Amino acid sequence: MPVSPHLFALFLLTTTVAMVTPGPDMLFVLGCGMRGGPRAGLLATAGVATSEAVHITVAAAGLAAFFAAVPVAFVAVRLLGAAYLIHLGVQAIRHRGRAPETRGTVAVDGRQAFLRGLLTNLLNPKMVTFTIAFLPQFIDPARGRVPLQFALLGAVFLVLEFLVDGTVGVLAGRIGGWLRRRRAAQRRLDTATGGILIGLGVRLALER
Q: Are the C-beta atoms of 180 and 174 separated by less than 8 Å?
């Protein structure tokens, strides 16, 4: 096994705890699932996981070092991601309670859920910083094949992400499907989803 068994066990424990703790990704998937159904929840998770794979790749290539050297680039990408989340939240509230066929691009179908999950996570440079700071803690250079160790840990990270957030998305989709059959509940659901997205955007914009 290329990774130290002891470090791998610690990695599994630490990553599992981090995954089950509600965070921006989980809340985003939750909102997509409740508005678009189980399929949208799963595809939102797939979008998030795809962006995580990109983060792992670019982190290994040293993009986090670039952000550290050019702080304005980090701030610019962070604010762009925050603005996108706030935009999605405002749209959800503006179009709350409308039937899916009248919402146009505001409806959360599978394709939109995937793209939104991809974009919202890609536009969060903190994920690159987290990845490059987190994964190396569980790599043992003395065992050699460091790229392989990094790839293995990254793959496990993605699988756990998909299992946890995917489950949340499917369950939220089933609950949301029941609520969507009731117009008053639909309005409250859209308002809550929009509030979550706006809150995530504000949180991202204010983070340092």
A: no
